[in-house]
């Protein structure tokens, strides 16, 4: 492991941007491409938003923890909430499935995370919380493509 970080914050919507910014800074040392950075920020945003909206019903009280480890050009990030949990993880992973249609939620959060990651693992216990662990491998830097 080259580096690691742990971040804890209150489950408020405004903290989603904070999580995205901190995690973007954390991966800056591996010099990701603009596309990789954008995808990674989207994954973090989706996972944190799910924890706020679904884990805590946007209560602004619960805590979210992010733990990330960097090894070479691979990042493993776990986003943890201690909220409601997911009743059926398989169903929740289905594209367009949402428990909040009245809020015009698209039901694409896990699908987006899976599209922009190499692996997404979801562990959840109803009424105890959820951990979403994301693995992303960043492409090696091509010296010939590097701007000097």
Automatic annotation (TrEMBL):
Enzyme class: transferase
Coiled coil: none
UniProt keyword Transferase present: yes
Keywords: ATP-binding, Kinase, Nucleotide-binding, Serine/threonine-protein kinase, Sporulation, Transferase
Catalysed conversion reaction: L-seryl-[protein] + ATP = O-phospho-L-seryl-[protein] + ADP + H(+); L-threonyl-[protein] + ATP = O-phospho-L-threonyl-[protein] + ADP + H(+)
GO molecular function terms attached to this record: protein serine/threonine kinase activity
Location of the Histidine kinase/HSP90-like ATPase domain: 35-140
EC number assigned by the record: 2.7.11.1
NCBIfam families: spIIAB
HAMAP family in UniProt: Anti_sigma_F
Function: Binds to sigma F and blocks its ability to form an RNA polymerase holoenzyme (E-sigma F). Phosphorylates SpoIIAA on a serine residue. This phosphorylation may enable SpoIIAA to act as an anti-anti-sigma factor that counteracts SpoIIAB and thus releases sigma F from inhibition.
Family the UniProt entry places it in: Belongs to the anti-sigma-factor family.
This protein's name: Anti-sigma F factor
Native species: Psychrobacillus faecigallinarum
């Amino acid at each position: 492991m080259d580096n690691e970080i742990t971040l804890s914050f209150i489950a408020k919507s405004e903290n989603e941007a904070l999580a995205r910014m901190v995690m973007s800074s954390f991966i800056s040392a591996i010099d990701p491409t603009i596309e990789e950075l954008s995808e990674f920020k989207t994954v973090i945003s989706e996972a944190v938003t799910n924890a706020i909206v679904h884990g805590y019903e946007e209560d602004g009280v619960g805590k979210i923890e992010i733990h990330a480890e960097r090894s070479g050009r691979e990042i493993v990030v776990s986003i943890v909430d201690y909220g409601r949990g997911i009743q059926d993880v398989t169903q929740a992973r289905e594209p367009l499935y949402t428990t909040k249609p009245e809020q015009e939620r698209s039901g694409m959060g896990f699908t987006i995370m899976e599209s922009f990651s190499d692996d997404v693992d979801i562990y959840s216990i109803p009424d105890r919380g959820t951990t979403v662990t994301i693995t992303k491998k960043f492409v090696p830097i091509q010296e010939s493509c590097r701007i000097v």
